[in-house]
Amino acid sequence: MADQSAADARALTATGALSANIARPMRRRKPPNRKWLFLLPALIVSLCVVLIPVVVTTLLAFTDWNGFSMPHWVGLANFVTILGEARFWAAFRNNCVYTFLFATLPMICSLFAALLLMTIRKGRTFFQVVYFLPVTIATVILAQIWRSMIYSPTSGVVGWLQSVGIPVDNPLVNPDTSLLGVLFVDMWSWWGYLTVIYFAALRQVDRSLIEAALVDGASRWQTFWHVLRPSILPTIMFMLLMSIIWSFKVFDWIYVLTEGGPGFSSEVLATLGYKTAFQSFEVGRASAYSLSMSLLGMAAIVVYLRLQARREKV
Amino acid sequence: MELGTGRLARLFVYVLLGAAAFSVAFPLALMALNSLRNNFDILLTPLGWPSDPDWGVFWRVWQEAQLGRAIGNSLIIAGGTVVIVCTISSMAAWVIARKEVPGWMVVSLYFLATTTIPVQMFIFPLYFLMAQLGLINSPIAVIIIYSAIFTPFSLFLLRTYVLDVPMELEEAARIDGASDLRVFTHVIIPLITPGLLTVALIVCLNVWNEFLIAITFLQNADAATATARFYQLTGRYGNNLADLMAVATIIALPTVIFFVFVQRRFIEGISAGAVKG
């Protein structure tokens, strides 16, 4: 979800800096220290809206609650059920495919676009603003434009292409392509955001380094690989992590474009959990989906951090 | 840096960048242009130019779809969220930046962890609690939930602004006998105002566009935000794409104009976080 983007981006960078100053001694002692009171409002809001409900959801995953009657403890029954379901595994597989493609393809396109932007003088701001436009528009609106004005065979561009004899079809109604159809729209709306960030990172690279490399006869590719790439690698790795976190939580695009269909061909864990809770009111089982989704998401982050740690050691 | 030396090479770069810009703008242009055409023409081809533009469509759907009401709801919820988020996150940012409270590290890590948790991990209990309390379709419930969701990001952003406030200023105020609250309101707040503005911009935009919580907690036409209202209307206007695109244009235009005006601040705001790290 791109709208959370800036939010999470800040959050993670900030902690990177947090750990640096732990050892610094306290500046002075002033009794009594009441400053923790300033932390309280933010903590209370977060505890009530996030932490306590997260604990409740975790407990509900072990019950058969339907939202109204008294919940009964059913142990691991919900997990046994969902692990035996075809749609759970379909959703899990879709989540993995989605996250993998979402984290890689826009990364390459955006890096290329940002490099191209570096080579021009006029129009940099214009291109950045245009590329960024979809990020500022609600996903539900963009999804609807794509659904009715582009993918639709009756009113969309696909229909027009068919009428002039080009054999294309609405990707959203075909189980083989529905997930990719959604993913394409998500990537279309998102790559501009990455481009703007990479461009900002590239502009901070010391110009004299680049000029020195070019004067010394390095090719453009060598300049990119040996000068630019190492300097912006932290930004790339950080955006990769954020892309993984956001795309694993994908909900809006799928819910608006296909609602997970046809069949379960574009279902992901977020839509599966949501529909189970609010359409069939099986809150216990929905909580089990949510919990599995969080655990799998956490596992993905841990694997990523491990790989990165290993890279840095080498 | 000027990599493209030849005139031809430069032209080629502009063609590529222009093609990318076109592919981004094309669907948005389809929305705007088709809102001015009629449904019959759209079914013939979505690619036509509005030869006889129907400007009255905007006023008509504005009334039919109660868009004034929906936009009002969005503004109330965005305003409420901005006020709460700016207040509580600037207070917390001050404490966390100064590290004077034991446990600040645990609290930071907690807020960091909340940004990775999927919404589905906490809205089920909240929804059924709000239903019990009769707070479904109430802006208050949504404002509180948004406040909790946007606080971590605002906190970490404002923290970087607090770090730029010299400790000496705080100490000078203390020597003059100022209380914690007075230091906060008279020293910290005035100096982090640019940060608060950036937070307000980003929170406003995110609240305006938010989908999942809006459609879950605001189910009535009267209570819906602009985005939730659009989702409700996709069923009703399913057969009238011109009207649907007109509604889309009305809801998308404010954020696009807003962004184009503040783009410098906005782009600097979002990229600074990722680039510094």
Note down, in words, how this protein is organized.
The complex is a heterodimer of chains A (314) and B (277). With 314 residues, chain A is mostly helical. Chain A has a domain at 87-136 and 167-313: MetI-like (MetI-like fold). Chain A is built from 13 helices and no strands. Chain A has helices spanning 5-18, 40-60, 77-83, 86-119, 124-132, 139-151, 157-163, 178-203, 207-215, 220-248, 252-257, 269-278, 283-313. In chain A, helix 8 (178-203) packs across helix 10 (220-248). By secondary structure, chain B is mainly α. Chain B folds into two domains: 7-56, no CATH class; 66-236, MetI-like (MetI-like fold), CATH 1.10.3720.10. Chain B is built from 13 helices and no strands. Chain B has helices spanning 7-35, 39-44, 56-64, 67-98, 104-114, 123-133, 139-163, 167-175, 180-191, 193-209, 212-217, 226-236, 241-276. In chain B, helix 4 packs parallel to helix 7, helix 10 packs antiparallel against helix 13 and helix 12 packs antiparallel against helix 13. The two termini of chain B are 23 Å apart. Classes of the chains: A mainly alpha (314), B mainly alpha (277). Chains A and B meet through helix 1, helix 2, helix 4, helix 5 and helix 6 of A and helix 1, helix 4, helix 5, helix 6 and helix 7 of B.
DSSP strand content of chain B: under 5%
Q: Say how many strands of chain B there are.
A: 0
Straight-line N-to-C gap of chain B: 23 Å
Instruction: Give the CATH class of the domain at 87-136 and 167-313 in chain A.
Output: Mainly Alpha
Count of helix runs of chain A: 13
Low-confidence stretches of chain B: none
Compute the separation of the termini of chain A in Å. Answer: 33 Å
Shape of chain B: globular
Count the strands of chain A? 0
Radius of gyration of chain A: 24 Å
Structural class of chain B: mainly alpha
What's the overall average pLDDT of chain B, rounded?
A: 88
In CATH's first tier, which class of the largest domain in chain B applies? Answer: Mainly Alpha
Looking at the overall shape, the CATH architecture of the largest domain in chain B is Orthogonal Bundle
- Please give the oligomerization state of what you see: heterodimer
Amount of beta strand of chain A: under 5%
Question: If you consult CATH, what is the topology of the largest domain in chain B?
Answer: MetI-like fold
Please work out how many helical segments of chain B DSSP would assign. 13
